[in-house]
Design brief:
By secondary structure, this protein is an all-alpha fold. Helices cover 71% and strands 0% of the residues. It contains 14 helices and no strands. The chain has helices at residues 2-42, 64-75, 78-83, 89-123, 128-153, 164-187, 191-196, 207-232, 253-256, 265-268, 270-298, 303-327, 332-356, 376-385.
Length: 386
């Protein structure tokens, strides 16, 4: 009997490892896509492909005639006429490859998620109570592709760049998908196998630790949204002083809030958007220090303390890098590094939150005894063979 249970335990652990590896690979692709998307935005490459062809668009131009056709399409939009008039074909190819790489990574992510997901479902490796969440991630991925085109379309007719509203929506949805994938992978474990051996003995952390961990993730997502607005408005190229902005620590209200209606200042006024981005950075820095102190005081030292310390270190590095990027007038290497560290910080914050809130065993997926539940027949067969 014990041999059969141990065999089941090992098999379920192998399934869990395979699923976690799959989710982490998908997360790595999303991470790469966000970075390439940042490079695409900073190099003004996002409008170089003026059509959305989800299937045939996977192939780049293959000969000189096709390159000329793509170039002529780009020459028909306002960005070319107002910003890049006289651009050579060789220069166009540079911005084209950035946007093409961004789109092809999106397609790779779709395949990398869907094909293994379908396989795991067919093999019965995914418990019923986990399937809805994975289907939701797949649906959000499909929505992300549509929102990406919705964003690009905003810059093809009456503008020379994409809408900052749509840019921020596109980036934050990518980050939400990334958070969902990392969260699911970090918390994935086979509840049935763990319950058989009584391994699930993690006590929940104090409520203030859990609230602080979740709060950090929410604030970091909000900060990334504000960062996208800063990029969309090119606010990083203005007010390049620190710690003062526009001559003061807090600018004059007449310059912060002159747009009508008032809410537009928080999305369309470069000074207000950059000021909000700075202030929220200070708030996150303070909160992460308080979280580390609270974890050290209330929680046992171990994974929860380590994850809190790593998030704190990442936030400190990110704040310093943000200041450096600002003073450099958003130099391309620093701006890309700033975005990369933002994603690393978000990753560490998600792992910290997952550590603070351990998974719970669902009574629907675990048998009350080794001989009951969904794997009862398999266990009996293995027991007889042993």
């Amino acid at each position: 009997m014990m041999t059969a249970i141990q065999a089941l335990y090992r098999e379920d652990l192998d399934h869990g490892r395979a699923i976690r590896l799959w989710l982490y690979v998908v997360a790595a692709f999303i991470f790469a896509m966000v970075l390439v998307g940042g490079a695409t935005r900073l190099t003004e490459s996002g409008l170089s492909i003026t059509e959305w062809r989800p299937v045939t668009g996977a192939l780049p131009p293959l000969n000189e005639a096709q390159w000329q056709t793509e170039f002529q399409r780009y020459q028909a939009i306002p960005q070319y006429r107002q910003m890049n008039a006289g651009m050579r074909l060789a220069d166009f190819k540079t911005i084209y490859w950035w946007e093409w790489a961004h789109r092809i990574i999106g397609r790779i992510i779709g395949v990398a998620f869907f094909v293994p997901f379908a396989w795991f479902l067919w093999r019965g490796w995914i418990p019923p109570n986990r399937r809805a969440g994975l289907w939701m991630i797949l649906a959000l991925g499909a929505l992300q592709g549509a929102i990406g085109w919705w964003m690009v379309a905003s810059g093809l007719a009456d503008r020379i760049e994409v809408s900052q509203y749509r840019l921020a929506t596109h980036l934050v949805l990518a980050c939400l998908i990334y958070v969902a994938v990392v969260w699911t992978g970090t918390r994935w474990q086979d509840e049935r196998a763990q319950s058989l051996f009584g391994k699930l003995d993690k006590a929940a952390q104090p409520v203030t630790v859990r609230a602080g961990a979740i709060g950090l993730v929410v604030l970091l997502l909000t900060q990334i949204y504000l960062g996208a607005l800063v990029a969309g408005l090119r606010a990083g190229h203005a007010y390049n002083t620190w710690p003062l902005i526009d001559g003061g620590f807090v600018p004059q209200s007449s310059r912060l809030l002159f747009e009508v209606p008032l809410w537009r200042n928080f999305f369309e006024n470069p000074l207000t958007v950059q000021f909000d981005h700075r202030m929220l950075g200070y708030v996150i820095g303070l909160l992460v220090l308080l979280q580390l102190f609270n974890v050290a005081k209330l929680a046992k030292r171990g994974p929860i303390f380590t994850s809190a310390a790593l998030v704190t270190a990442a936030v400190i590095v990110q704040v310093a890098l943000g200041i450096w990027t600002l003073l450099s007038v958003a130099a391309l290497p620093l701006a890309l590094l700033h975005q990369a560290i933002a994603m690393i910080t978000l990753s560490l914050a998600v792992v910290h939150a997952a550590t603070a809130i351990p998974p719970r065993v669902s009574v629907r997926t675990e048998p009350s005894s080794p001989w009951g539940g969904p794997n009862a027949r398999a266990m009996r067969r293995r027991a007889k063979q042993s």
